[in-house]
Predict the structure.
Amino acid sequence: MEQSVNQAMNQSNQPANQFNTLEKRTVKISVLVSGGGSNLQSVIDHIKSGFLDQAIIVQVISSSADAYALERAKNEGIPGIAVTRQQWPEEEKRNEEILRLLTEAGTDLIVLAGYMSILSPELISAYSDRIINIHPSLIPRHCGKGYYGKRVHRSVLESGDLKSGATVHYVDEGIDTGRIILQETVPVEPGDTEDSLAARVLAVEHKILPRAVKLFCEEYLKGK
Ligand code: GRF
């Protein structure tokens, strides 16, 4: 990288366009959250470790003003912005504001990491194939309308399924219907509660979300 910048300077006798070079190799991620943000933290940690060296998080947008995820963003020096129902009661205006923030930050990829609001069709089509979501079950099991939070794990336990897991998928206009990127399975253990199963699944979410982001970045940068 440094070498190519130097070479560029020598050849053209002009200041090397470092910014363009960086732009070319960096995927700018906006992470949308609503809660604790442990999946956000996992992406941050994998960027810091170098595993996700093609990515930067340019902002965290939260649907809730007191989400701990915003605290995590602050601790890492990442801009955190709340766009809430209270501030923007009209769903359309709220989505317009989110779209404005995404555009202004030059977002390449949107990561929904525990985001509990619905995105408008306009926003989804503006970022077609550039929005990914993590869901705490093995899609197509236990997903769709009404399957969020503990309800997902309750449904797994009630179904008698012997395994569950997590799925990262692209977001389309349906609920949890987009193309699957990665899945990983965990066993359902005898005596599991919603909490114990959720914790086992969450550990897997923290693994596959950064891996899916990496897969996205590799593909995306080929075309950039
Ligand atoms: C995760 O289980 C995710 O799959 C679900 O919401 C939870 C968010 O956890 N959509 P966190 O905010 O990342 O800790």
User: Anything to note?
Assistant: The first helix runs from residue 2 to 12.
